[in-house]
Amino acid sequence: MSVKTGVPPIGGTTAPALRVDGVTVRYGDVLALDRASLEVAPGRVCGIIGVNGSGKSTLFKAVMGLVHPDAGSVLIAGDTPAAARRAGAVGYVPQSEAVDWDFPLSVRDVVMTGRYGRMGFTRRPKAADREAVERALARVELSDYADRQIGRLSGGQRKRAFVARGLAQGATVLLLDEPFAGVDKRSEATITRLLRELAAEGRTILVSTHDLHALPGLADEAILLMRRVLVHGAPSEVLTPEHLSLAFGLDVLSGGEDE
Ligand SMILES: Nc1ncnc2c1ncn2[C@@H]1O[C@H](COP(=O)(O)OP(=O)(O)OP(=O)(O)O)[C@@H](O)[C@H]1O
C-alpha cells in the first residue's frame, strides 16, 4: 500500500494514523521500550509524558524508523516507518539541544530541507518546492523571518521553523520532542494554537513534554510511558495523583516541583 501524502479526513474510519504494537527496543543491556502498544487516530494531539529515560525519544525514533524494534511493529497510516519516511509522512521537531544553531542556514533553508526527499540528488528546488516552503512559512507566521540565520530566532520561533519543515515535507504525523522547553509563555500559547489548528485539519500530533500543567490545554489524550504504556486516555484520566506518583514518584502537580 502506498503512503498518502494528503491529510486524512477528520474522524476517518480507515487505519489509525499511528499504530505501535508490542514494540520492544533494547540498547545492549538497556531495555528502553518493553512491549509498548498504542494507537492514535487522525486529528488528535497526544501528549507523551514520563520521567527521563522512560523511552519517549526511543518511541519517536521507532516511529521514524531510526531504531528497529527487537519485537513488535509500527505502522503509520498503515505503512512501515521506512515507507512513511520515504513519503515524508512523519515530521520531527527535535529537542533544542539536538540542533547546531550556529549552522549557516536561513529559516527558509531549514524549511527547504523538508523537500529534499522529493528533489533527487541535485537538491535543486523546483517551483513547487519553493511554493510549499513559502506556504509553510506563512502557516507558522515566520514569513518575515525567512532570510534570518536559524540561530537568530527565539526558542519558540525555532520550534515553529521545524514545524514548517514538517509541513513543507507534507507530514501527516508530527512528532515534537519537548517543544516547550526554553520557550516563554507567549510562544507556548502560539505553538499550542498552531498544533491545535494542524490537528483540526486532520494531522496527528505527538508531543513529548515535561510540562504537565500545559497538557490539558494542548492535548486530546495523554500517554504515561514507563518503558511500556502505563495509561492512555484523556489528560484528566492520566494526570491523576495515583498515576503521577507511580510514574514520577512525587506529587508533581501540586508543589511546583522541578519536573
Ligand atoms: N543509543 C543508546 N545507547 C544505549 N542506551 C540508550 C541509547 N539511547 C537511549 N538509551 C537508554 O534507553 C533508555 C530510554 O531512553 P530515551 O532517550 O528513549 O528516554 P527519554 O524518555 O526520551 O528520556 P529524556 O526525557 O531524558 O529525553 C534510557 O535508559 C537511556 O539511557
UniProtKB/TrEMBL annotation:
Q: For the ABC transporter domain, which residue ranges apply?
A: 18-252
| GO molecular function ontology, one term from the record | ATP binding
Q: Does the keyword Transport apply?
A: yes
Alphabetically list the UniProt keywords: ATP-binding, Nucleotide-binding, Transport
For whether the record's keyword set contains Nucleotide-binding, the answer is yes
Top-rank taxon: Bacteria
Homology family: Belongs to the ABC transporter superfamily.
Q: Which protein is depicted? A: Manganese transport system ATP-binding protein MntB
The top of its lineage is: Bacteria, Bacillati, Actinomycetota, Actinomycetes, Micrococcales
